[in-house]
Design goal:
This protein is an alpha+beta fold. About 35% of the residues lie in helices and about 20% in strands.
């Protein structure tokens, strides 16, 4: 389906979303009423021989059995796992690290972390992890997030300094605290408290890169006018985004980056923002974004993608429509979205990048693929 064609039916898709939400709410309310009525009956029951726990379980089962099937659609156990997807040309190597976790029955969230750690620690990867693009004052800082489908929990770090495995710090935020996002030096202090080693993220390559830029006496592109109408390409694009469905049908997603060249100190991009850099829903699938995060985060494109998929769009259709939402506002930018449905179907779309080949890698029981995303 073309982007234009998809736009003509979007109102119908959103009506489907509203109707599904209404049915789910009504079914849940009915379930709660039935359980409450059954529990009230428990107080009047003394001759059944059932203890309170047994009676409660029986009452709950009775209530659930009384629900219409469309109210329980989310409990279907159909899924396409195990499968793992990672963006860009480091995707195949990252998937090679994450796939054994899934193949052995491990959790999607563990596979995602392992795959992203692999990219974060690559010594020659300039746009993810240490030794990468510096900010305006020559310091490399990192953004990362993780999201876990079964609990819909999120952990993220922004402008993280002097810690290499940013996505693992994000997971600690998710699992050890009630917070969702920590930033700057305070995120670094948290990481050290969690046992991570504090070390410089600058290497000889990133230092020389910054010195050469300073010698040109140029301003950061962050001061440029908004990229509306006229295309103003940004250097750098290789955010690593990984998503997986495990053998149990659970979904995990994560991403990590050191951001755009010579960003202003303190800048946080789209990667650690749930619904912008990455998003998942255990009933639907996952999506990741890469590109000009300062523009894309304004539209929460990964959240938008998932909601379109929930309403029936394919991953390819949903990513196309989410990008169209941005271009319809007049923005000219380089960016891409990749989506993975719970059933294993995947698709992607991009905007710009005429001179860059945007690819993503897929690994499942059938083998590996490295897919070129076409305009």
């Amino acid at each position: 389906m073309s982007i234009a064609g998809f736009g003509t039916c979007s109102s119908g898709i959103y009506r489907k979303v509203d109707e599904a939400s209404r049915l789910t709410r009504e079914s849940a309310a009915r379930c709660h009423r039935l359980i409450d009525e059954s529990m009230k009956a428990l107080k009047q029951t003394s001759s059944t021989g059932m203890n309170r726990r047994e009676f409660a379980l029986a009452a709950t089962a009775t209530a659930l059995a009384a629900l219409p099937l469309n109210g329980l659609a989310a409990t279907k156990d159909e899924h396409g796992g195990p499968v793992i997807i990672t963006t860009w040309d480091f995707g195949p190597g990252a998937n090679d690290v994450g796939w054994p976790v899934l193949q052995s029955g491990g959790l999607a969230i563990d596979a995602v972390e392992a795959a992203i750690n692999h990219v974060e620690l690559l010594p020659d990867e300039f746009y993810v992890g240490f030794g990468g693009v510096p900010n305006e004052i020559g310091e490399t800082t990192l953004d990362a997030m993780m999201m876990w489908g079964p609990t819909h929990d999120v952990g993220a770090v922004g402008c993280l300094k002097r810690i290499k495995r940013a996505v693992s710090v994000a997971r600690k935020v998710m699992e050890e605290t009630q917070h969702s996002l920590l930033v700057g030096d305070d995120a670094t202090r948290f990481a050290v408290r969690m046992g991570f080693e504090e070390t410089s993220l600058t290497n000889l390559r990133s230092q020389k890169f910054w010195e050469a830029w300073v010698a040109k006496n140029k301003e950061s592109s962050a001061w440029d006018p908004e990229p509306i109408g006229e295309q103003r390409p940004l250097e750098g694009h290789d955010t690593v985004g990984t998503m997986a469905v495990d053998a149990q049908g659970n979904i995990g997603v994560g991403c990590s980056t050191n951001g755009r060249n010579f960003k202003l100190p303190g800048r946080v991009g789209d990667s650690p923002i749930a619904g912008a850099g990455a998003y998942c829903d255990n009933e639907v699938g996952a999506a990741v974004a890469t590109g000009n995060g300062d523009v894309m985060m304004r539209f929460l494109p990964t959240y938008h993608t998932i909601e379109l998929m929930r309403a029936g769009a394919t991953p390819a259709e949903a990513t196309q429509a989410a990008i169209k939402r941005i271009t319809d506002k007049g923005y000219s930018f380089d960016g891409g979205l990749v989506a993975l449905a719970r059933n294993g179907e995947h698709g992607a779309s991009k905007q710009g990048w005429e001179n860059n080949k945007f690819r993503y890698a897929v690994r499942n029981a059938s083998g590996s693929q490295h897919i070129l995303v076409k305009p």
